[in-house]
């Protein structure tokens, strides 16, 4: 999430609100209003580039001394949270399809590559804040993603958030990122599905056999439960995206995984093969899990083409084009969120930069094989393996 700072005045507790740049009293270039409601009443705070606190703001909660560059990145309709120490965090970006609502920081797994380590005993509740966000964002919002932790561990909260979505965003595509374990309970899934409109479940399945998947997830029996969850989702005719994060523990399974999906899970709408983001647990376990995409590119190509030729939708997330065989470039997607994405200086001379997903700013590992793609290299070196 994008965050920046200024000096806080008159702010004793975190304030959440919607950004309004156009306002009768303030010019949006130097001062931005934080509204309580969608319809423009009830100002909660001001953000300003002024370095001293202007007299007219003395009674207002205000963050002054915000850089012009940061302020200009805020749009009408963004939702931000302002803290008493002057920190400002953007929780929702207007018009972006990369916004995520964090339902909980609890999880029932201990994945060796979890980019965002969770707390299995957490009692924090984000419900009130999440409801507030969903109630003030634009009704034209067309995509909302629920994540965690594991969002299905808070079924009541998830149901209540989905109910708001159903009421306010009847045509939006709602996705839920899940490990699928809690979905093995038929009643859990029934309640969730009954609340939502157009639900897409993005389910992690990192292997075609239980010992590989269970070891990665850190939970014995995870594979069997997730499989049960997938069949439950199929009974409700939900859209399903399978997510396979490629690492040292499972890369050799890639072709077998593709075959397994085709034989057992043909009802899924989409299969995504994902490169690792080396942060959180993945950074801590790097010696154990690290693998360069160059090492598995032949197996990945095999898996991708196996599913594609059989009519299944398949994508590659988070792997730069220069690390893939040329004939599977068409499956690579712009999957890294804008605020996390970066490029190396050498990427400036790459002819595929505009189509490339880039690299994670947050990763502690960058492949030494990144090299700009030029017409001559396309012709000579990057033909299909
Ligand atoms: S990667 Fe997902 S399922 Fe695994 S521990 Fe992290 S939040 Fe839980
Ligand atoms: S050189 Fe850079 S821009 Fe080009 S494909 Fe590789 S990572 Fe992407």
Automatic annotation (TrEMBL):
NCBIfam families named in the record: rSAM_pair_HxsC (TIGR03977)
Annotated SUPFAM superfamilies: Radical SAM enzymes
Organism: Acetomicrobium mobile (strain ATCC BAA-54 / DSM 13181 / JCM 12221 / NGA) (Anaerobaculum mobile)
Protein name (database record): His-Xaa-Ser repeat-associated downstream radical SAM protein
Matching InterPro entries: Aldolase_TIM, Radical_SAM_PqqE_MftC-like, rSAM, rSAM_paired_HxsC, rSAM_sf
S-adenosyl-L-methionine listed as a keyword: yes
Lineage: Bacteria, Thermotogati, Synergistota, Synergistia, Synergistales
GO terms for MF: catalytic activity; iron-sulfur cluster binding; metal ion binding
Family matches, as PANTHER family: PQQA PEPTIDE CYCLASE, RADICAL SAM DOMAIN PROTEIN
Pfam families found in the cross-reference section: Radical_SAM
Keywords, comma-separated and alphabetical: Iron, Iron-sulfur, Metal-binding, S-adenosyl-L-methionine
Domain Radical SAM core: 102-260
